[in-house]
Amino acid sequence: MWYYIVIALQAFCIYHVVKYKNNYYWIYLILFIPAIGSIIYLIMQVYNKRDAEKITSEITNIINPTKKIKDLEKQLQFSESYQNRVNLADAYLEIGDNQNAITHYKEALDGNMQNDFYVIKKMVEAFYNIEDYKSILEYTEGVKTHKEFAKSRTQFIYGLALEKEGKLDEAEAHLKNIDVRFSFYNERFIYAKFLLNRDKTEEAKEILESIVSESQHMTKPNQRLYRSTIVEVEKLLQTI
What we know:
Blueprint: H1 2-19, H2 25-32, H3 34-46, H4 52-63, H5 67-78, H6 82-94, H7 98-110, H8 117-129, H9 133-140, H10 153-164, H11 168-175, H12 185-197, H13 201-215, H14 220-225, H15 227-239
């Protein structure tokens, strides 16, 4: 039993190193001093009391990524409720099974008389992952007036779908709304590249410089999370 616990800890810690782009020397410590190295990493890079439940859940999902799916499928079989179907769709989306996620989101919407913004925004994310831009435009049309649509990632994805369909002015009008200070770093980087492609160099440069400036005030978790984006922003700035 102890052996499997150590393996699970190693797997989680390495997953965490890669996901948050921490220094890769941690991987050597975790691999070559398995138990102690993993514990040191958890204490120094991950753990606090509020994260305990999340860590346990993530370790379980790494060991058996389909367990959550199977449990939610059983719940749906027991009670075919709207929420149970949405929960299952969310779980499929989490593991990258976009097609199954979309299937269940659609079934949830078919059984619901209202356009649930949460379900549509998650389905739009799944459509984006599989590059189905026409479906993004189709399903987003009904929620553009929703109070949560403005300045959301859903609006950003809608803008990207418009770009793919060649509607560049409409795309820019929606993408512009994502340019909110101290947030949406990845999305703003993509928006800046969109502006560069439209020869709007000064506007793009202003966004990129803002991102670099804001990065100086990020919390340590955000610095790890957005490290690669900041590096790419700085590289792009050097070419302008």
